[in-house]
Specification:
The structure is a homodimer of 408-residue chains. Chain A has 408 residues and is of the alpha/beta class. Chain A has an 8-stranded mixed beta sheet. Chain A has helices at residues 13-32, 46-53, 76-83, 127-143, 156-167, 172-179, 182-198, 201-209, 215-223, 227-238, 299-309, 330-342, 356-365, 376-381, 399-407; strands spanning 36-37, 43-45, 69-71, 92-101, 113-122, 150-155, 245-246, 260-267, 270-278, 292-297, 320-324, 347-349, 370-374, 383-388, 394-398. Chain A folds into 2 domains: 13-309, 2-Layer Sandwich (BirA Bifunctional Protein, domain 2), CATH 3.30.930; 320-407, Rossmann fold. Chains A and B meet through helix 1, strand 1, strand 2, helix 2 and helix 3 of A and helix 1, strand 1, strand 2, helix 2 and helix 3 of B.
């Protein structure tokens, strides 16, 4: 029998403990800014998914046997569907951490089921919303120990204006696709690709998109071409008290973006971990039109980084293992464990009727830091041996002292 | 365009806030007892699901178009698959809260996507494990305000022994199916059904399963028939310092149970919210045989009860709305909000460039308890107006005082 489905993963406790912690840390930042949780089903009508992505999406998604339903490939389409058909007060600021499914050929670091952590703001055209997403993203990077994230900003309005000005509206899709590959194929190949498609016009475009200039120089160079696009970015920048780099070559996919687009790297040498942008036209596909901007946090990447950083992996939440010296004292053992739990201490006991040494082996196999021994002497004296399993150090403590000591 | 898929749900913030809280409260109890998180994908190979439930399961599950994969219909089969193929230290105590999918005809309170909250203990035959599940379930009921849950206990070994003794091994499946309907059709109909199938033998069976007796009387009446089954239940009872009712008529499905089975109602008149039992043979289907017992918490039911109990629904986590008196002070507004967030206070600002009244309308629409006004006077004096949006009461406070006041 085959085991875990191809390209998917079972998450053992060691990994889940990291995953739960990363998720909780991300969500606690989202909540700090007033984002509210909203969840949608794993499945959507195939029509809903196609409405955004066309019929070619069918190849990349998991379609159900009845051909009416399919598993969602992102969290944005379901959000757009709900937001376009609801009357939540505006702005509707929502967060959602959940799995999405894509039928990709599995390869290193790519999975057919993976989690996304999205925040979106529906119902305001103000750049304050886009700026808040960057402020929050910056805080999120800091929270995970990356004090100098590389935050890049562009505006699809400027890119569209460039297409007009340089004269590649016909070749726009192709040009954007090439620009979008910068991280993958590098500057030289991008330039070559552009020259192939645009001929001499490539030089003009490359002058506009050059990155060896200050933000001011970049914005100045396109102000006459896209006044509104520049004004929007200047407004976003005015709310950011941390480095943000204007990158006029950044496209962020061929999708639905209509205004500012952003991309955040945790540091110069760690790839993109958050990305997003404004998509003011998507909701109209699903009902009522409305403004929208959002950012998606690559939570899988963050989890991977946190796991690589940690030297030892936590295997359980348990703080203490309450061992019984001999089987006759098991009832006393669970009574002591119950007392500790009542005091908020995560405590477990032996469910296998094993001898003391084997109980310790189990506690050690999960790296539980403390063990308490419950035996005849302990019960008659009311003082229990607390053993630090890492150092081997032992103390004799009353019930109350145990609770106090283990709480800290 | 169709919206939410049939029989599935979008969860708006008001509902998600309750759902997240219920989930967290359940999980914090699981962790207290040393349970560890382990997650599996939404999909399994169809063969994996059929291995437990037979090909007839196909009608009830969502099969993917390629006919190799399907969405899981419970959390036990995936657990059994992983546990039978892993070397986690034993006992492997795992929890998992996640969605499952069943292709049922949607009806009141039944959904095609719903969440389960499971705990299982793999790798011990000791009744300590089954008892721990009951102790934990009792605590869980108390946690949700139900101080006198109705906890029922039986043993499949006793039921099997009764089939032999009364002589209905041939009709066992049918008899169990009838007994299992007790909650749905009531005692009279069950008796009638049994008489239809068993004739005079029904009377003998009904004597054994009668419930108007003490636990001791019930166990005594079957001790000679199923010594081991009785001993197991006595052991479980010996670890429970709260009422547990032996119910020899309780079957808990036709599935895979092999030993103690349990069912927990929050109170006499609220239906079953947790149920489970021992399934020592299931793992062998997926690889290595091992002991197993577990309980599934009907988290959807708990969520519904909590929502019905609460008079007012929380709409956001935000503690305070930081309003700007006029647009020019927006930067100061976000600076104050940033200061509050640094102090752990959940704060949001106006992303729509609205006037003060409309900002208050928004804060009120989300029932945010406090609002702060940032204007010229406030900025020059360093004292801000804090408004309690419920009472209308206002105070003038410094930044530091705001942080202190809002923290509590």
């Amino acid at each position: 029998m085959k085991l875990t489905p191809k390209g998917m993963r079972d998450f053992p406790p060691e990994e889940m403990i990291v995953r739960e912690a990363v998720r909780d840390r991300i969500i606690s930042i989202y909540r700090k800014y007033g984002f509210r949780p909203m969840a949608t089903p794993a499945m959507e009508y195939l029509d809903t998914l196609r409405a955004k992505a066309g019929e070619e999406i069918d190849k990349q998604i998991f379609v159900l046997k009845d051909e009416k339903l399919a598993l969602r490939f992102d969290l944005t389409v379901p959000l757009a569907r709900v937001a376009a058909n609801s009357d939540f007060p505006r702005p509707f600021k929502r967060y959602y951490v959940g799995p999405v499914w894509r039928k990709e050929e599995p390869q290193k670091g790519r999975f057919r089921e993976f989690y996304q952590a999205d925040v979106d703001i529906i119902g305001t055209k103000s750049m304050r919303a886009d700026a808040e997403l960057l402020v929050m993203s910056n805080e999120l990077c800091n929270e995970f120990g990356f004090k100098e994230p590389k935050i890049m900003l562009n505006n699809r309005k400027i890119l569209d204006a460039l297409a007009k000005k340089v004269g590649f509206e016909k070749e726009k899709k192709e040009v954007f696709r090439i620009l979008d590959k910068m991280d993958k194929i590098g500057e030289d190949e991008v330039e070559e690709g552009l020259r192939d498609v645009l001929g001499v016009r490539a030089e003009e475009l490359l002058e506009y998109t050059a990155n060896n200039r200050t933000n001011e120089e970049k914005l100045e160079s396109v102000r006459k071409i896209s006044g509104e696009g520049v004004k929007e970015l200047e407004e976003v920048l005015s709310f950011c008290d941390f480095p943000v780099e204007i990158d006029l070559s950044m496209v962020r996919g061929l999708g639905y973006y209509t205004g500012p687009v952003f991309e955040i790297k945790l540091s110069e040498d760690i790839g993109t971990v958050m990305a997003g942008g404004r998509y003011d036209t998507l909701l109209s596909v699903y009902g009522r039109a409305d403004y929208a901007t959002g950012i998606s946090v690559g939570i899988e990447r963050l989890i991977k980084l946190v796991m690589e950083k940690e030297k030892s992996r936590k295997k359980t939440y348990s703080r203490v293992f309450v061992a019984c010296a001999t089987q006759e004292f098991y009832k006393d053992t669970i009574n002591l464990a119950a007392y500790l739990r009542k005091n908020g201490i995560l405590a477990e006991t032996d469910l296998n009727e094993r001898n003391l040494r084997k109980q310790f082996d189990y506690a050690n196999s999960l790296s539980i830091q403390y063990a308490i021994i419950v035996g005849k002497r302990e019960l008659s004296s009311g003082r229990f041996t607390l053993r630090n399993m890492e150092t081997g150090k032992e103390e004799s403590l009353s019930k109350e002292q145990l609770a106090k000591k283990l709480k800290t």
